Structures are given as structure tokens and as C-alpha cells.
Amino acid sequence: MEITTPNIFSILRKQAATTLSPGRLTHVLGVEAISCHCAVKWGIDPRKALLAALLHDIMKQRPKAELRGFLDRGIIDVSHEDLEHPQLWHGVAAAVWAIDELGLEDMDIAQAVAWHTTGTPGMSDLGLVLFVSDFIEPSRNFRHVFEMRKRVLSRESVREAALDVARNKIAAIERQGKALHSRTLDMAEWLESLQHSPELLASRKE
Ligand SMILES: [Fe+2]
Ligand SMILES: [Fe+2]
After folding, report:
1. Span from the CA of 30 to the centroid of ligand 1 (angstroms)
2. Ligand 1 centre from 51 Cα, in Å?
3. CA atoms within a 13 Å half-sphere pointing along the CA-CB vector of 164
């Protein structure tokens, strides 16, 4: 299954509509819309962004035992720490499902879907688009979301936008006293290390 597979978008939309709650479906469609905007803005293939958006939460409401079964197939490498954070399992499970059962061969899309919750250092620009879009999609209503959305969408590169989101997520998780995954911290450090470097500029698109 690739972005060129006939009807792949309608197949996945139908799957989302029949397996997700109305609220979760609204979120997915919001991510779809804004990730398309972000992809065009930052010079990434919008069809890949749409496919990643449609896939990212397709397993969100499945039982944890089922998600764990997808992780145990060994198709995507997970760490011991990943196994201790069940909130990220749905992303890895969706990527494994897409590879193993739909025949997805594009690992850029699979990795974007797998790590959309935490982010991960070295993430592709497509992965960063999904990471950002998941956070600022139109139905999100956390405090200061309007300001956050405006700031993120004003950034010249998706890496700068993703650093805004990573910092905001880290602050929120720390405020809530929840366990912070090292992937998020490592990604923020990686993005910070790129600031003022040609690598950050390299991801800026005209
Ligand atoms: Fe998710
Ligand atoms: Fe999501």
C-alpha cells in the first residue's frame, strides 16, 4: 500500500469512521486538514502527510493487549522505556499494522506514525509535520491554543515549529507531574542543537 494505491484515502477514512468515536474522528480529520496545510507550507509531499495523518490514531481506541501484540511482532524497534509508556503504543501499532497488513513500504510514513506521540531525535520533516499537526489541529482546545497555533504556523521551518511543540509538551507533562519520555527530551535537544546551524536552515523551504 502506497499513496498511489487506488482509493487508499477513502479506505482509511472509512476505517477511521467505523472504528473511532466521533470525537476521535473529528481529531483525525483535523490533523488531516492542518497537516496538509503544514506540508504545503514547509515543502513536504502533502499526500504523504495526509496518509500519515489518517493512519496516526487508527489504533487509538483498541485494547492495550491488542496494541502490545502489534509491538511484539518486532517490525518496529521499541525500547524498554517505550514498553513502559502505553500511551505511545497506538502509534507503533498503527505503523506495524500498515506495514504488515496493508503492505505499506514507505518507512518515512511508518516512522512518522510510530513516533507521533513522543517525537524522536532525527525525525524526518514528514514526522515533524505530523508531530506538530497532532498538537495544533483545529479541534484542540487547551489553554492558549490560539496563540500556540499562530506561533507554530508562523515558523519558517518545520523544525522550529516542532521545537515549539516539544517545549510546550515537556512543560505540560512536567506541570502535570507525569513521566516524560526520553524520546521527547532527546528530540528537543536535537532540535535545539540545530538552531543557528545550516541544518535547521536546510529544512526551510521557499
Ligand atoms: Fe495519537
Ligand atoms: Fe492524534
Report:
1. 13
2. 14
3. 21
Q: Digits of tens for pLDDT over the chain (206 positions)?
A: 666 666 888 889 999 999 999 999 999 999 999 999 999 999 999 999 999 999 999 999 999 999 999 999 999 999 999 999 999 999 999 999 999 999 999 999 999 999 999 999 999 999 999 999 999 999 999 888 999 999 999 999 999 999 999 999 999 999 999 989 999 999 999 999 988 776 665 555 54
CA 194 – ligand 2 centroid, Å: 26
DSSP category for residue 43: T
Domains identified in the chain, total number? 1
The CATH number given to whatever domain includes residue 58 is 1.10.3210.10
Model-level pTM greater than 0.85?
yes
Whether 65 is in a domain gets the answer yes
- Flag whether 2 is in a domain: no
**Residue 128 domain-assigned (yes or no):** yes
